[in-house]
Amino acid sequence: MKYYSIVFFVILMQACEKKKEAQSIIPAKTELKENKDKTDSTIHHTHKISETIKDGQDDVMLAEDIRFNGKVKRIFDLNDFEKVFGKADSTKLMADEQPCAYIFEDGNVNDKYLYKNSSCFENSEKKVGVSSFRFLNGNFILYKGIRIDSKTTLEDIKKIFPNSVRNLSHLETYSEGELPMITLREDNNGVSDGHINIYFKNNRIYSISWWFPC
Questions:
Q1: Are 103 and 123 in contact (CB under 8 A)?
Q2: Pairing with 118, which of 34, 90, 106, 174 sits 20 to 30 Å away (CA)?
């Protein structure tokens, strides 16, 4: 009788050990599944972020947010030209150049280009508009209060216009050869057919110009 009692006790102990082992395996499997779900979720989230960045449009640069040499908007009064930029280096009638696009669409035969420090302006009666602007001889712009001048690097611009810098291209220019260039949209809703080009030279900002199709 004593022998059977010992055998029964041993069997009972083995059954208890197996039950504990089974209980310990279940939480381990549950934890493994939870960790796998977390990993899958992270991978999926990262993939979505990458797609969003990859498909991003060029950034927007509104003319109303720009102040040339910290003082005038893109279109300003002729009386302020010499006050801000100095006397024009040279002028030329626009009719002689026959450009395919004008800032002032309702201009007249006396409209002319004003050139100053390699920048180009359009003048129609008492109004002046910036066509292209060189960051030369101290020229700079304030964009939303941020100063951009000849010392501004491509990395600096990347902080302001990340999508456009990501889409950086190169364009052959008339006087400087091939230059790195980014493109900016003129408005948020895609109303304008034109865009803005910013060029770089030696990794620093070189010029900004407005482009409109013929």
A1: no
A2: 106
Residues in the chain: 214
Tokens of 46: 């990262």
Task: Give backbone dihedrals phi and psi of 84, rounded to 5 degrees, phi first.
Answer: -95, -40
> How does DSSP assign the chain, residue by residue?
-HHHHHHHHHHHHHHHHHHHHHHHHHHHHHHHHHHHHHHHHHHHHHHHHHHHHHTPPPPB--GGGEEETTTB-SEEEGGGHHHHH-S-SEEEEHHHH--S--SSTT--TT-EEEEETTEEEEEETTEEEEEEEE--TT--EEETTEEE-TT-BHHHHHHH-HHHHHT-EEEEETTTEEEEEEEEESSSSS--S-EEEEEEETTEEEEEEEE---
What does the longest C-alpha to C-alpha distance in the chain come to?
A: 126
Tell me the per-residue pLDDT of 57-76, one tens digit each, with 9 for 90 and over.
999 999 999 999 999 999 99
pLDDT in tens, 182-212: 999 999 998 888 999 999 999 999 999 999 8
